[in-house]
Specification:
By secondary structure, the protein is mainly α. It is built from four helices and no strands. Helix 2 packs antiparallel against helix 3. The radius of gyration is 33 Å and the shape is rod-shaped.
């Protein structure tokens, strides 16, 4: 008789509301822990990518400033050449070299900016959304 009353309270044999809430909280905690671990792992890679990007931009700006300085020096040397002094071509070549190196560094920085960050996290979240869509259609077809 006692077993019958326990069965009438919980006819399907499932856990009670409190146990289900604890299980849900535990599953939710595990889900967020795994996602945070993935974000932390990709954050390290993103930091390295960002450091390379910033260092290339800073170095490109420095070399551009040197190039500008050599360009100004070559204008000055050009004026000196008019006066009979001949170091114009060396200064122009140095300016051109600095501009080419700065352009190469800017292209490296641009290629780093194109790469998407958090690729694995985005793919995991996409899988989660697909799973939720499939779960929703499965629940609708069974009811």
């Amino acid at each position: 008789m006692i077993s019958e009353t326990a069965r009438s309270r919980n006819p399907a044999g499932h856990a009670g509301l409190l146990e289900n809430l604890f299980a849900f909280a535990s599953a939710l905690t595990e889900f967020f822990e795994s996602r945070f671990a993935l974000v932390a792992q990709e954050s390290k890679a993103a930091l390295v990518q960002l450091l390379v990007l910033v260092s290339c931009l800073i170095l490109a700006l420095i070399l551009f400033a040197f190039g500008y300085g050599f360009l100004v020096a070559s204008v000055v040397a050009g004026l000196a050449h008019v006066a009979g002094i001949s170091w114009l071509w060396i200064a122009l070549a140095a300016a051109g070299l600095h501009f080419v190196i700065a352009l190469a560094l800017l292209l490296v920085a641009r290629s780093r900016m194109i790469k998407p960050l958090f690729r694995s996290t985005a793919s995991e979240l996409k899988k989660d959304r697909e799973w939720l869509k499939n779960l929703d259609t499965t629940n609708q077809s069974t009811s």
